[in-house]
Amino acid sequence: MKTNNFFKPLAHAIGAVSALISTAALAETAIEEVVVTSQLRATSQLDTPTSVSVLDAAAIETRGATNLEQLLNLAPNVNFSSGASRGRFVQIRGIGERSQFIDPVNPSVGLIVDGIDFTGLGLAASTLDMQQVEILRGPQGTVYGANALAGLVSMTSNAPTADTYAKVSAEAARYGSSTLSAVTSGPLSEQLGYRFAVQNQQSDGYVRNRYLDSKDTNNIDETVARGKLRYQASEDLLLDFTLFYLDADNGYDAFSFDNSRTTQSDQPGWDRQETLAGAVSAQWSGSDLFTINSVLSAASSDTEYGYDEDWSYVGFHPWEYSGTDNYLRDRDNLSADVRMVSTDESRLFSGSTGWVAGVYLRTEEEALERNASFTSQFDTDNAAIYGQLNTALTDRLELITGLRLEQRRADYSDNLEVTNSNDENLWGGNITLQFSADDNTLIYGTLSRGYKAGGVNGYINSVADDNEAIGPDAYLFDTESMLNYELGVKGDWLENRLQAQLSAFYQDRKNVQAKQSIFNPDPQNPSFDDYLANAAGGNSTGIEAEINFQATDALQLFATFGWLNAEFVDFISSTHVDARDDSEEVALPPVDLDGRDLAHAPNYQYFTGAEYALTNNLSARVELEGKDDFYFSNSHNEKSTAYELVNARLTYRGDNWDLSLWGRNLTDEVIYTRGFYFSNQGGNNPANYYAPEAYYQLGEPRTAGISGSYTF
Predict the structure, then answer these.
(1) Whole-angstrom Cα distance, residue 134 to residue 125?
(2) Measured between alpha carbons, how far is 91 from 73 in angstroms, rounded to an integer?
């Protein structure tokens, strides 16, 4: 019934789009070309033979987004999980991490901002003064390697301008929310330009703590600053310098026993991050045979993540149990990427083949301190060489082949005397055929391989002596790899007023890294101990579509749709121990997850809407977005609920100012962004005798606000 209800409005929308296409001759406005910059060569989005969504500054502004999490639902088959103040963990086509607690994480989805690697640091994904966000789906084994098995998010901020420019913006909304930002840009000399942007965002959050009588224990308090310099050192050399600073001091108090937005924690947590990062990029074109593009980046981040473990206060539990958990992480990384790109003069094989060759180096150090009692150190070094050939087989048919060879070393140690060193030789690549059916239509087929490094489950190794359910097979996990088969078509028609992308894919995963939990029934210190294990395999099948249609000069229609079936293959979850009472422990049987959907992998999701110019200055925008239910975890069967959200925005634009009234989730739908299930004797609530129970973190309720900007 749920699926039928979903497809009815979709069918009506398709019919409406078809009717508008038949009358589209009334429109004269073409849709602007979008350039993808996150590949080895900058190309038009519609000439890029991969599944990629590009969200430009206009899309970010009309969405009212201040962080990446507010943009992810615009892209098909992209999801995120919270478990913190923001949705810091991204899943693409059902693949991606959902949380991080004790052990280090090898990410599945990369995050690059202005050439700086912020993978695993989602609070840094601010949209302040952002030019565009590119979301690449499928393994990026040739270009980005080990941290992009599922895909990549690449964010690029605006560059310095040739003319002096300044803009101030402000926003006020429900729940004590306010945002202030300013941007200034211009030339310092004929060769040197600058750009500086700063933003502060405050919000009480939409959780009320009844015990503390407080409404801001789940607050947002973030300050972001970015400075850029562009130096035309010579006719052949362009240098870009970027400096980025983030100070996030957010609260985290999201779970309650009745699954509401009213909590009773006496020690609410936090989600903090302070980051200082910078990058230098260079473009050199002093040779007739090749150009050189390079990026050197460094980032230092101190994070703190903590929460009230019992979600209550002293005296709530019969034996006055009270506990907190806190994670301090210091992460420093340095990366360098240098690539040579051929010119027309150096094409190979009688001029039929262009080439790219590059070298990549990355080193990262991550230090953890948990509750002042557990410390660990995780250091990684990556070195890679990569290359790509673009061979014109005919005037319309091109073969693209890419290969990346990567060496990775990882060293782990902790204060419980667990040590591990892991050296791996990894490889990825792609083979793509693209056919230009005509000047406006591209058809492509690709086979790509991605990979994710193996590692050690350090903490569960160190506590194995205290929990007999933990065996040696839980100490280490193996490298995961994936083959991605994809067919797609994209193009623009009706004099560039209709743009569309459609792709179908099948992904075959080997040694799938899946999180498991083992319950420690110690009555004095019960706990769930997480670790990573390898499933035999997994596969994903899906469809992704994006349409952007300038129906008339006044009316623009847009839609994205994703269908996904992502499953485990031959995966038996590990046995764990459940304490039925103080004297009896029962070993629960393994759970067969063969054919079960992956966690955080909804079967469908969509985003559609329209923007209409009521007058030359006044425009109205309406959006509808929806998502199917999905499992929260691979260790239990609790699911989110399917939902549909309605958003609207009314904007008036003057000569150098604009003002918007907006609302999100206007029907006040209940959204679940994270969920847990605590088995017998592992629950939190004495009111139901600690019976098995599910708990949920709720997403944003109905909210509304006003925003405006003034350009000097």
Answers:
(1) 12
(2) 11
* CATH number, domain with residue 98: 2.40.170.20
**6 in a domain, yes or no?**
no
Write the pLDDT tens digit of every residue in 267-312: 999 999 999 999 999 999 999 999 999 999 999 999 999 999 889 9
Tens of pLDDT, residues 365-396: 999 999 988 999 999 999 999 999 999 999 99
CA distances from 480 to 50, 106, 122, 139, 495 (A): 22, 11, 23, 12, 45
pLDDT at residue 5 greater than cutoff 80: no
Tell me the average pLDDT of the chain.
89
Q: How many other C-beta atoms are found inside a 10 Å radius of the C-beta of residue 162?
A: 11
CB 433 within 8 A of CB 445: yes
Q: Which of 327, 585, 589 is nearest to 467 (CA)?
A: 585
**Strand ranges inside 143-214, DSSP E:** 151-157, 165-173, 177-187, 192-203, 208-209
Q: Alpha-carbon distance 435 to 399, whole Å?
A: 9
**In terms of DSSP H, where are the helices of 94-226?**
none
> Which pairs from 431-434 meet CB under 8 Å and 24+ separation?
431/399, 431/400, 431/401, 431/402, 432/49, 432/50, 432/399, 432/400, 432/401, 433/397, 433/398, 433/399, 433/400, 434/49, 434/397, 434/398, 434/400
Closest residue by Cα to residue 38 from 120, 110, 104: 110
Residue 115 lies in a domain: yes
User: CA 145, CA 490: separation in Å to the nearest integer?
Assistant: 26
Single out the residue of 443, 526, 444, 513 nearest to residue 485, CA to CA: 444
Q: Tokens 């994006």 label which residue?
A: 546
Position 2 in a domain? no
**Whose CA is closest to 149, among 105, 98, 94, 110?**
110
Q: Which residue has the tokens 């913006």?
A: 169
Q: Cα angle vertex 89, ends 85, 94, to 5°?
A: 140
Strands annotated E in 47-86:
52-56, 78-81
DSSP 223-264: EEEEEEEEEE-SSSEEEEEEEEEEEEEEEE----TTSSSEE-
Q: Is 167 exposed, middle or buried (0-12, 13-18, 19+ CB in 10 A)?
A: middle
pLDDT digit string (tens) for 28-64? Answer: 677 888 888 888 888 888 889 999 999 999 999 999 9
Q: Per-residue pLDDT for 329 more than 70?
A: yes
Report whether 193 contacts 187 (CB < 8 A): yes
Q: Is residue 13 part of a domain?
A: no
Range of the domain at 692: 23-711
Q: For residue 675, give the amino acid letter.
A: G
Q: Give the tens place of pLDDT for each residue, 91-109.
A: 999 999 988 888 888 899 9
Scored b (16 or more CB within 10 A) or e, 392-406 reads eeeeeebebebbbeb
How many domains are contained in the chain? 1
